[in-house]
Design the sequence.
């Protein structure tokens, strides 16, 4: 059961001028489900992306990087399949990803390097190219602007609900639309971006600026979530600016640039948090805030130590205020000169520890009350400096084990 | 159910001349179980230890380090309680650990700094000093050489079987005995040593040499196991040499030194592996071998990435050869310049991947056959150099979640 997350209302997902979407049921792995998605972008659109840092990055990730570079961001289409990650597949995997782009480019009348390929699913198996290529014409025939809900559904794997966020605002007197989708529920500790996030706006943003923004948005969203600490081979996060609306941004200094950037970060964060809310087996949504660190990296190391600890995560699952486990995680986060006698720990409004030990006024029943909530904020204050960060995660439940023990069966 | 691990036969645990052990039921946390252990060492014994690197190290760990230094290793007693870790307890925790040593020293007629204290159990709660001090006289009255089985039982927490290893050999014509005990089943990713390992020999070994050996033994045993990646606040591993037997070792060059050192490493490794075999919820015992790394640290980083991955561990639990998860873990282990096209992966005698992709001859049923075993060796060959290491771990099962969600209730 996802934590405070519902499937989006299709009517609330605004079309983005310059983007059409189409899906198909290609039986990549299982029959009957949408498993291929094509996004067509209008001429003049620019795209930018960030991708997994896993050294075993999947073939489509390598091809995405090549194509973004060769096309200078002048992308005309994205193609996504679920059910098979095309990772750990060597030369044949690369050739499969390239053939997919070529087939779609021929059908849409653009260059192959203007197509970005994405795959998600099982690792170490070859793509069923016959079925994938056979599915493309159906997805192309389905292309239409009002297909975001179907698109969000088509990229799901172990997700239990589709994830989409849409906003329509006015910036500098121009109506601007931002709509995005994401997927992911396990193998989630993005290290640049997660598999998969796609966000489109009808504003015009040059590719170089969009590339900077996509990194900044990832760092504030997809790079701040973790479910199980496993960085996927396929993480990809792509921002698209079609320029088909009225707002034109030329640089950070353009009127409306700051507002659009903030909107993109906001949508990214909501999509990233949706992945945690639908984390495999998740019953709670946990925000881990670390303050008083010397550097942002130090804050992140402590936040991830807490967010990855199986003992901390099972305690959240059990609503058990066994909070010494959080102190233990802070202690092994790798800060060699951490003075534990300066560390404070809070659970929402309850101070648990002060100066490295149990807070004198802390009562078990107060900890218990917070632990029973569905949404909990852990706040660790290190007392070393001014840097801080927030990481979002979920608990570790029986269902996580069930889902991952049964994934392929 | 522990993996190929049975409770030791008490008759097979040889007494070590110069060591007496006594236990008591002090109701530290739960009534009716042995929860206090005292080891008395003969005059002239030397002891050396390695302790957790967790910055939130427990009060008894701090006091152990002080006492080892002040006594120069001339230790006369160890005192252990379970049920409460005396960690995250500030000044009062230190004072409690010191009072415990003082009380035992008074009873045994030695100096307080000749007593080493150890605690294990819940973090962030104060020791029930009244009950602990009341239990000491009973443990002292119980002191006898043939109590290793009871001692192994008295230090258990979530362990399902007591862990003890005993060897009697002849070195340079002298009979030499080595007997040790360990405990631990969760919060296991020792970073110097694990909570708790105690090994005693009746050979004579000077404290400085013993200190070197305890580090080397830890690095080859307790520092190569992981259950959940959580480094405890209380990890402690102590070697004792009573000198009450016939063998005298003065330096690494003494006759028999190499043999005794190898024996101590061997016993350490068996005790460390016993902790993994009894890992919380473990159904499989996994050896992760990484070869062809540039450095030992690099090999260890890859081995731990595999051994900590919840996705890899749940796949082992399910006997599912979803081996792409192992490649993904290798890929995110932090080797920035890893050439994945040189990576091979083996599961026992089955080659799964070659040159970064699926091995042409790999068949799913071969992977399945190995995954069904109770003991499995994963071997990753990086193709970068000559360094290698082995880490031992277990799978991640439903019972791990149950045990840790219920631990305090």
Sequence:
């Amino acid at each position: 059961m996802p934590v405070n997350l519902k499937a989006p209302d299709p009517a609330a997902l605004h079309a983005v001028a310059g983007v059409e979407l189409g899906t198909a049921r290609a039986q990549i792995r299982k029959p009957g489900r949408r498993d291929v998605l094509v996004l067509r972008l209008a001429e003049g659109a620019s795209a930018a992306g960030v991708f997994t840092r896993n050294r075993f990055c999947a073939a489509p990730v390598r091809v995405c990087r090549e194509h973004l570079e060769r096309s200078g961001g002048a992308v005309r289409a994205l193609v996504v399949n679920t059910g098979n990650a095309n990772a750990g597949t060597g030369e044949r995997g690369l050739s499969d990803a390239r053939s997919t782009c070529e087939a779609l480019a021929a059908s849409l009348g653009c260059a192959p390097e203007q197509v970005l390929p994405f795959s998600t699913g099982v690792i170490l198996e070859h793509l069923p190219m016959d079925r994938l290529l056979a599915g493309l014409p159906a997805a192309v025939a389905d292309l239409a602007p009002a297909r975001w809900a179907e698109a969000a559904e088509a990229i799901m794997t172990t997700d239990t609900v589709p994830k989409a966020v849409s906003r329509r605002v006015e910036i500098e007197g121009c109506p601007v639309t931002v709509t995005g989708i994401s997927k992911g529920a396990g193998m989630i500790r993005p290290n640049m971006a997660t598999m998969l996030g796609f966000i489109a706006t009808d504003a015009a943003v040059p590719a170089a600026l969009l590339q900077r923004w996509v990194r900044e948005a990832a760092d504030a969203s997809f790079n701040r979530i973790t479910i199980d600490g496993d960085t996927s081979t396929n993480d990809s996060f792509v921002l698209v600016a079609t320029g088909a609306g009225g707002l034109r941004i030329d640089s950070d200094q353009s009127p409306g640039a700051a507002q659009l950037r903030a909107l993109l970060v906001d949508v990214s964060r909501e999509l990233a948090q949706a992945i945690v809310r639908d984390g495999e087996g998740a019953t709670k949504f946990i925000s881990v805030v670390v303050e008083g660190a010397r550097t942002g990296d130090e804050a992140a190391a402590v936040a991830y130590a807490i967010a990855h600890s199986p003992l901390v995560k099972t305690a959240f699952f059990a609503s058990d205020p066994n909070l010494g486990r959080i102190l233990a995680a802070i202690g092994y986060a790798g800060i060699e000169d951490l003075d534990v006698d300066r560390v404070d720990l809070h659970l929402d409004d309850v101070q648990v520890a002060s100066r490295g030990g149990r807070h004198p006024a802390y009562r078990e029943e107060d900890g218990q009350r917070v632990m029973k909530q569905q949404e909990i904020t852990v706040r660790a204050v290190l007392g070393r400096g001014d840097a801080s960060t927030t990481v979002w995660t979920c608990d570790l439940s029986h269902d996580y084990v069930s889902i991952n023990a049964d994934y392929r069966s």
Chain B has two domains: 10-277, 285-406.
